[in-house]
Amino acid sequence: MPTYALLGATGSTGSAILRCLLSQPPKHLTLNIFVRSRSKLRKAFPDLESTTAFKANIIEGIPSDTTATQECLKDVNVVMACIGSNYSTPGISLIYDTATAIIDACFWYFCEGFLSLIFRVVQSIRWKCCHIILPPGYVRTGRD
Predict the structure, then answer these.
(1) Cα–Cα distance between 127 and 144 in angstroms, integer?
(2) What is the pTM of this model?
(3) What is the tens place of the pLDDT at every residue in 31-89?
(4) Which residues contact 141 (CB under 8 A, 6 or more apart)?
(5) DSSP string of 84-135?
(6) How far is 138 from 88, CA to CA, in rounded Å?
(7) Domains of the chain, start order
(8) Interstrand relation of 3-7 and 55-60 (parallel, antiparallel or unpaired)
(9) Rounded Cα distance, 9 and 45, in Å
(10) What is the spatial distance between Cα 105 and Cα 90, in angstroms, rounded to a whole number?
């Protein structure tokens, strides 16, 4: 059962991908849709939430929101990042913020799986204690 993440579904590229998925959905698809404005998405795709073509999860947030990005990317097989800008405005870091949030979310899921594996190994050989060394620059978020 594939799970896709579509970030930026209200822009020109993201909405074209969403129209394509609505017209020809893969079997048993779950689609996590990350948007800044749920109301803008509903206006552009009024039948989205009632579609039976696939299961749609709409996550609203800003591109720098790592928690919302983690929610969108949880257990996905494919990520379609369509958040961008046609202009290079000084002081606006939309693409950088989005890329950082995606990398942080992916790193979180990598570490979560890695730590779970270490825990199972430690349990299986019954060590008394375990010290986990995290990569340089890793910042604990409170979820770990």
Answers:
(1) 21
(2) 0.71
(3) 999 999 999 999 999 989 888 889 999 999 988 888 898 899 888 888 888 887 776 67
(4) 66, 108
(5) --SS--TT--HHHHHHHHHHHHHHHHHHHHHHHHHHHHHHHHT-S---PPPP
(6) 30
(7) 3-125 (3.40.50.720)
(8) unpaired
(9) 10
(10) 26
